[in-house]
Amino acid sequence: MSLQFSGRLKRLQGWGFVGLIWVGLGECQLPIKAQIVPDATLPINSVVPTGCTNCLITGGTPDANHQVLFHSFEQFSIPTGGSAFFQPDGGLLGTLESIVTRVTGQGAISNIDGAIASPVTLFFLNPNGIVLGPNASLTIGGSFIASTADSLQFSGGGTFSAVNPQAPPLLTLSTPVGLQFGGNPEPIVNRSQAASAFPALPVPPGLLAANAGLEVIPGQTLGLFGGAVSLEGGNLTALQGRVEIGSVAGGTVDLTPTFNGFAASYENAQGGGDIRLSQGSQVNVSGLGGGQVQLQGQTVAVLDGSQVLSYTLGNQPGGNIDVNAIAAVEVAGANGPILSGLRTDTLGDGAGGDLNIRTGQLRISDRALLSASTVGQGSGGDLTIRARDLIEISGSSFETLQQTLFLGAIQGTVQLTDAESGLLVGTAGPGAAGQLSLDTRRLVLRDGALISTTAAGSGRGGDTLVNASESVDISGSLFLTGTLQGTTQAAGNLRLDTQRLTLRDGGLLQTFTFGSGAGGDLVVTATESIDLLSTPLGAIVPTGIFANSIFGTGAGGDIAVTTNRLTISGGAQIGNQTGALLGTGLIPFGGPAGDVILTVADTVEISGFSPDRRFLSGPGTTSFSGAPAGDIRLTTGNLTIREGANISTTTLSQGAAGLLTVNAAGVVDLVGRGTINPLGIPVEVPSSLVSSSGRADFPGLVASGAAGSLQITAGELRIRDGAEVAVNSLGTGNAGTVEVRAGLIQLDNQGTITASMVSGAGGDIDLQAQTAVLLRRGSLISTNAGNTDGGNIAINTPFLVAIPQEDSDITANAQQGRGGQVVVTAQGILGTTFREFLTPESEITATSELGPQFNGVVVLNTPDVDPSSGLIELPTNLEDPSDRIVSGCPSDRGNRFVVSGQGGLPPSPTQPLQSPLAWQDWRFLQPETATAPLVTSTVPNRTIEVSAAPAVRSAWVEATGWQVDAAGQVSFISQQPANAAQTAQVDLVATCQPIRSSL
């Protein structure tokens, strides 16, 4: 250890620091005198020339091993232009490791606006407070520790106290191990802007402050420990070394010797005060390998363009920045082009250091930035934030973010240095970006905030892990990971776990690739709900969740969303694209799009479009390039789509559209239509589930790729008020197939299921309903075709029901090709029938405009049952019953109604029918042999043959009608003969008899 410090002293002498300090010593040449007054508390007291401005300090008491030299002062202040040089006795230079200085005078604040010099590490204690002025500077051969602690603790158990100078014998003290604070420690203020004594670091201009402020030699520690610690335009510099700033309310700050000085720990400290960097202050530990910074307090604020920097140069790994704030960390504002921030970027071959923040709340605003990035060969460090309650990031505006960053990314002009107001874990060189980890209760991004793990060079993008136990709210801000144009490596993945996720007013959660590497996967889990709301006017892209591939050939990542309830409205979307159509034009380049997998336990509600009607709401995958679009798989309880919104897989190019699969345990309800205006032309669009080649709202984009297929499984499918399920092809591509498996399929008020095409093939519909398929009020199931053959329709259901007069049709018609095939398998087909042409009524057709010989086929499979069986044709000629009355009973004298004969009407309306006949069971009780003769009975128009004793009785046949003979006898028959009597006339005979009185 002694050789090490001796070497440091030799380096100081070699740099000319000792000679520099001696200039002007002796006679005081300045009117302001230094207030450096020794006390008389040491065995060997400090010696300071009286009235000096540049003061040579000698004397002091060494420990027994001559490793520590103790000085004690009643006052210690240095005026502007003054200096204090601690000169040990020459016999100590070979062994001395540190000088320990205390101020014992009560209320004697140390105001230092000059130079302090020491050949070895210097500890400076003043419990009354320390103020370091703009001209304060250090020429120290080791570390510098300034503190408002009461005492310094040593490894032997002793203390060197500034409030109790009668401490244990100094001879027992050796290595400093801690700072002991009393209650309510006084503050430390640094305003130093002193010039650096060392060559400038080889970094791009503008990254570092022009002045070093308080500075120690490279590789050493600069520490400030007190109550509140403020840097008011002042800088702290420890190149390749360590800066420790601790603000405590009491207790002990432990000090551990390290290779670059001392590291502080706060397990035995109490509470904390404020650490505040303002007015463009800078803490800098950059250099070959980079240094380390630790900030510990109740709150930490980095404001007004202030910075905490650990840039890594060379091939050595960089150091970390650790910020621990019990209550809050705030990073805000800028000083011209200089952003407030904390950065552990690497500019060389060595890996960058990590940036770690642990606090209650973190707030970043007004162009402030936290960065752990790389622009060199070295990999970037990790950025880890643990904020117990809140992480809140806000920018200057959403419009500024769009213009400077989003458009720049599209145009290929964006740089990592363009990032503002947020978190950046990026790479602009060969090195891979690090990992971003956020753990909090609430995460809020608003007004143009940015979180990015973007790759702009040849290195891989970084992964992002977010755990927000309560909520994530992204408004008018970007949260993304991706690769920019010209890159070759894969983008990072993004995983977000929370209870509630809200994206609104331009908020984006996105992975992307603009290069040849694959885009990252995006996995979102929100245990309660996800709300995607409102795309603002003038937005370049809609609010939503995306994983796109644009410009390059890299495949887009997959999107996996899991939640209990999903709401999408106001033009918000979930989507994967290959290529893009933006307000700036069409980008027809991109790799294969990824899939979208949505798992929603309860309900999905999708509605409407953006206020300017440029963006529809809903999940979708789209191909604007030659690469295929991705698939969509939705699993949910209930799905509702309203007001022109949709779920879609689409191709607007030669790439194929994806497969759309919807599995709903309950109801899928598609309702209504809407009018959008994406390209300046109003277009009415249905609420829909659709996989298409071409789209009506983009008439200028002619697609040749095939439409995908659509598969729906639901308890009930409702399509009403102009809504649609479709696999259409508007160009030359083939149409897909619609497959529906549901308990009930109901189309109402122009609800439509279509698989139409203009010139491509395909276009089939397969419907299976466990209960029924119902068509009401002009609804349509269609596989109509233009310049090709009609598609096929297969319907399998117990009942196919339509209202004849409501013109609900099932059609497989063609204009310039053959009609398709319609096959219906049902127990009953009600209200619709096959016709060879369309009428105003409900029908099933498969026609061709080329002529009847090109018509398709309609097959209606129903059970082999005579629908008239068991029905009796009622008489059509009604007769006047009055001519059946033999005589009437006068109403002017007593009468009674007498019914004669057997059976007939009861004696009174309140009595049951009484008959003297007893019922007899004529069924055979035992099987009989066939020895009985055949009995033949002849009745009018009917001969009945009955075997009196069949060997084995034939099965009973259910009666389906009856006939009445001339005698009025009724016989039940299984089939009524064509010439049987249709009616039997029976006269009722009533007589009038006087009523005998019993009186």
Helix content: under 10%
The fraction of residues in strands falls at 35-45%
Mean pLDDT: 85
Largest sheet entry: 33 strands, mixed
So what's the overall shape? Answer: elongated
Rounded to the nearest angstrom, the radius of gyration is 47 Å
Uncertain residue segments? 1-31, 867-871, 916-955, 976-999
**How many helical elements?**
3
Q: What is the total tally of β strands? A: 79
The SS-based structural class is: mainly beta
User: What separation lies between the terminal Cα atoms?
Assistant: 147 Å
Question: Could you explain how this protein is built, in words?
Answer:
The chain is mainly beta and 999 residues long. 3% of the residues lie in helices and 44% in strands. The strands form eleven sheets. The chain has a 33-stranded mixed beta sheet that branches. The protein is elongated. The chain starts with a helix and ends in a 7-residue tail after the last strand. The model is unreliable at 1-31, 867-871, 916-955 and 976-999 (pLDDT under 50).
Q: In terms of topology, how is this protein built?
A:
Layout: H1 2-15, H2 17-22, E1 35-38, E2 46-47, E3 54-59, E4 61-62, E5 68-77, E6 83-86, E7 98-103, E8 110-112, E9 115-118, E10 121-125, E11 130-132, E12 137-140, E13 144-147, E14 151-154, E15 159-161, E16 176-181, E17 188-190, E18 214-215, E19 221-226, E20 229-232, E21 235-237, E22 242-247, E23 250-258, E24 261-265, E25 269-270, E26 274-278, E27 282-284, E28 287-288, E29 292-303, E30 307-309, E31 312-313, E32 321-332, E33 334-335, E34 338-339, E35 341-343, E36 355-365, E37 369-371, E38 383-394, H3 398-411, E39 422-424, E40 436-446, E41 450-455, E42 464-475, E43 478-483, E44 494-504, E45 508-513, E46 522-533, E47 544-549, E48 559-569, E49 573-578, E50 580-582, E51 585-587, E52 596-607, E53 618-623, E54 632-642, E55 646-651, E56 660-671, E57 673-676, E58 683-686, E59 688-693, E60 710-720, E61 724-726, E62 735-748, E63 752-754, E64 762-776, E65 780-782, E66 792-796, E67 799-802, E68 809-811, E69 821-825, E70 828-830, E71 833-834, E72 843-845, E73 857-861, E74 897-898, E75 934-939, E76 942-947, E77 961-964, ...
Parallel strand pairs: 3-6, 5-7, 6-9, 7-10, 8-11, 9-12, 10-13, 11-17, 13-19, 17-20, 18-21, 19-22, 20-26, 21-27, 22-29, 26-29, 27-30, 28-31, 29-32, 30-35, 32-36, 35-37, 36-38, 37-39, 38-40, 39-41, 40-42, 41-43, 42-44, 43-45, 44-46, 45-47, 46-48, 47-49, 48-52, 49-53, 52-54, 53-55, 54-56, 55-59, ...
Antiparallel strand pairs: 1-5, 2-3, 4-5, 14-15, 14-16, 16-23, 23-24, 23-25, 33-34, 50-51, 57-58, 74-79, 75-76, 77-78
